[in-house]
């Protein structure tokens, strides 16, 4: 059961392709040293070799993030960086979500019904976070109201 919804605005999504799985820690260390607080973190499956990392952060930290990644890119030239700013994150949470099958299905169906693309999803046993374009914010708020979530 969803007990609450939290909305985060002014979010940037960074995706880095061609990262050696053994070097993912170096990227996060450089971001940490630059005092950048990340929110959502997602990694493609690793079957030995390269991975794709995606993470979100406040739009205001984008310049510092680009500087940190530029330093990393000097060492690992093969990486490709993609930036998408001006997003929002909608997080659904509830202690009983872990004992309630179908919550994810309901969340994804609700977004699909109003034709909102979820760009990135992260979950835990008590939360589901969905990153969407800010352009879809009004539709998302209406959807949340219609489902009695806000």
Overall, the morphology is: globular
Radius of gyration: 17 Å
The chain-level mean pLDDT equals 92
| Most strands sheet | 6 strands, antiparallel
CATH homologous superfamily identity of the largest domain: ACT domain
Estimate percent helicity: 25-40%
Contiguous uncertain segments of 5+ residues: none
Number of helices: 4
CATH topology of the largest domain: Alpha-Beta Plaits
Structural class: alpha+beta
Query: What is the beta-strand fraction?
Result: 35-45%
In the CATH hierarchy, what is the class of the largest domain? Answer: Alpha Beta
- How far apart lie the N and C ends? 14 Å
Give the beta-strand count. Answer: 6
Give the helices and strands as they follow along the chain: EHEEHEHEEH
The CATH architecture category of the largest domain equals 2-Layer Sandwich
Strands ordered across the widest β-sheet = 2-3-1-4-6-5
**How many structural domains are formed by the residues?**
2
Written description of the protein model:
The model has no long low-confidence stretch (mean pLDDT 92). This protein is globular. The chain is an alpha+beta fold. It has 2 domains: 65 residues, VC0802-like; 74 residues, Alpha-Beta Plaits, CATH 3.30.70.260. The two termini are 14 Å apart. A 6-stranded antiparallel beta sheet has the order 2-3-1-4-6-5, with no helix packed on it. The chain has 4 helices and 6 strands, in the order βαββαβαββα.
